[in-house]
Design brief:
Layout: E1 6-7, H1 19-28, H2 30-37, E2 41-52, E3 55-65, E4 70-76, H3 84-99, E5 109-114, H4 119-125, E6 132-138, H5 144-168
Length: about 170
């Protein structure tokens, strides 16, 4: 249901933007953002407030996916993926499951949108098992030459992962 990367060039962000700038730009262009996410998404809330042990936490964006019948938590990061983001999202998903999930809905899932993914960390953390996906976003369409290099690198990494799996079996 999720793709990677997300092309957010329509937000027209300038260099040096903050997470709040990214969030505000997305909400300003919500219809285009939902179309970029894919079919079935509906907007629920911005800066979803959660109080846990007396501390305030705020989830950047909360959506609902009609076909999946579950809440989709989206956390925005303006830097490269870090392992600590998994724990943050797990906490949010557990809270949403306990306090926001409605009867007949499945457990919430999460999407961490980062400026850059850390493929090996994401693979080692097995985030998909916890209902958490990580995807990159691009605020500009990359030149053809750079896209080709990224595609070639991704292909090599995929082949290496397959080889490692074969050696473990």
């Amino acid at each position: 249901m999720f793709k990677d990367p997300y092309l957010l060039d329509f937000l027209e962000l300038k260099n040096g933007y903050l997470e709040n700038d990214l969030e505000s730009a997305i909400l300003k262009e919500l219809e285009l953002f939902i179309l970029e996410l894919g079919n079935g998404f509906t907007f629920v809330e911005r800066q979803k407030r959660m109080i846990i042990d007396g501390d305030d936490y705020n989830l950047d964006l909360l959506f609902y996916h009609r076909k999946l019948k579950r809440l989709v938590a989206i956390e925005l990061k303006i830097d490269k993926f870090k392992a600590k983001y998994k724990g943050q999202m797990e906490l949010y998903l557990k809270w949403l499951d306990r306090y926001e999930k409605q009867e007949g809905e499945k457990s919430p899932i999460g999407l961490i949108l980062c400026a850059e993914a850390s493929k090996e960390q994401i693979e080692l953390l097995e985030m998909h098992k916890d209902g958490i996906m990580v995807a990159e976003y691009w605020t500009d369409l990359l030149p053809k030459e750079i896209l080709e290099v990224k595609l070639h690198k991704a292909l090599i990494e995929a082949r290496e992962r397959l080889e490692r799996k074969k050696l473990r079996q």
